[in-house]
Specification:
The chain is mainly beta and about 90 residues long. It contains no helices and seven strands. About 0% of the residues lie in helices and about 60% in strands. A six-stranded antiparallel beta barrel has the order 2-3-4-7-6-5. The two termini are about 25 Å apart. The N terminus is likely disordered.
Amino acid sequence: MMQNDERRSFMRLSADTSASITHLDNRSTTEVKLVDLSAGGCSFYASIPLAAGDLLEFAVHGTSRRIEPLIKRGHVVRIIDDDQGKLVAFEFDA
């Protein structure tokens, strides 16, 4: 399902899959639950402590080894606590 929010520059594609993030300060890697994805960023649920401005490397792998993984660096924009946990808004670096 695609969503269009007037505040966003890119259409977002809903996703329900796992991805991984690596915190670039301490090089720790953890699995996250991807919620949506666009050309400019994504949102995901994370169980580790994060803060706005944290620099991360985001990676999501396809269902086949023939598909190259999507790997992007960027920063945490905001974190929202909701009934499912900590929803992280993540913006890819240009």
